[in-house]
User: Which sequence fits this backbone?
């Protein structure tokens, strides 16, 4: 799933290559991806792309005051091309293409496709006059990279959720997902099952610095990459996430996994839980 660093890199790529260009045409291959009916997507035609930004994990493209807002969900992606096919995609097709934006004359100008792999569809697009009209943006907590240490501590205070849950709940803080939360917790040497609101001041310090280090480093590595290479860049920078069964790069212990119905997270018992494996499948206590 694209998280804060990848969405920031996509926004930067569009700022460099798309801002100032005119939206010549928008092709919709999957009507289900559109979460707003008015204004219609055709209202974007003829408008200039004036800015590209980010709200948490939402991409925001400002077209002369009308915003094309995108949430890539778990398997969505933005694919930039210097030339796109002039032929409109067939609506309701079975391929991954959901929506295409031509930033110049179709067939001779650049643009991008929004695609989604797999059968579980979550990619979503809104066309709004104000990004706050998007319910997910209106409900976002403070941005993970915009908080001071004291603001971060205040956000965690009082929450009884597991630390893993608190980091990835967008209403608590925005931008961190499953992969980078694993990396943040590993660097901070904290258990994913620790209670967010019960951390010591020293643990909050470690967690805050780890979050900034992991996210800022990922942004630095990602910005400037072509959209096609961002996924590979993300994977190459991960130390525990997605590395179940491999040695921890810090201590050499085996990276372990806790799996749920639709997702999993990884951690190092030696670095994070005092050597005790975490209970799997929705159990919240350490195994005795």
Assistant:
């Amino acid at each position: 799933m694209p998280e804060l660093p990848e969405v920031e890199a996509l926004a930067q790529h569009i700022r460099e290559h798309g801002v100032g260009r005119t939206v010549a045409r928008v092709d919709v291959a999957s009507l289900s991806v559109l979460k707003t009916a008015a204004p219609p997507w055709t209202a974007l035609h003829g408008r200039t792309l004036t800015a590209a930004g980010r709200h948490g994990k939402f991409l925001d493209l400002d077209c002369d005051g009308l915003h094309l807002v995108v949430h890539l969900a778990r398997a969505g992606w933005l694919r930039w091309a210097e030339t796109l096919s002039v032929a409109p995609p067939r609506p309701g097709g079975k391929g991954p293409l959901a929506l295409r934006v031509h930033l110049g004359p179709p067939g001779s100008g650049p643009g991008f496709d929004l695609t989604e792999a797999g059968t579980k569809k979550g990619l979503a697009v809104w066309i709004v006059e104000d990004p706050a009209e998007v319910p997910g943006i209106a409900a976002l907590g403070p941005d993970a990279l915009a908080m001071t240490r004291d603001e971060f501590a205040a956000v965690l205070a009082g929450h009884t959720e597991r630390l893993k849950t608190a980091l990835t709940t967008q209403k608590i803080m925005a931008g961190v997902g499953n992969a980078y939360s694993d990396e943040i917790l590993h660097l901070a040497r904290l258990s994913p099952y620790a209670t967010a609101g019960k951390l010591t001041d020293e643990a909050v310090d470690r967690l805050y610095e780890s979050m900034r280090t992991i996210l800022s480093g990922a942004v630095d590595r990602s910005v400037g990459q072509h959209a096609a290479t961002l996924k590979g860049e993300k994977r190459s920078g991960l130390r525990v996430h997605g590395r179940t069964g491999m040695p921890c790069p810090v201590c050499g212990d085996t990276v372990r996994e806790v799996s749920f119905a639709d997702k999993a997270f990884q951690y190092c018992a030696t670095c994070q839980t005092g050597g005790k494996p975490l209970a799997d499948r929705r159990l919240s206590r350490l195994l005795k």
Remarks:
- Residues 282-288 have pLDDT under 50 and may be disordered.
- The longest helix spans residues 201-222.
- Residues 4-138 form a domain with the N-terminal domain of MutM-like DNA repair proteins fold (CATH 3.20.190.10).
- The two ends are 33 Å apart (CA to CA).
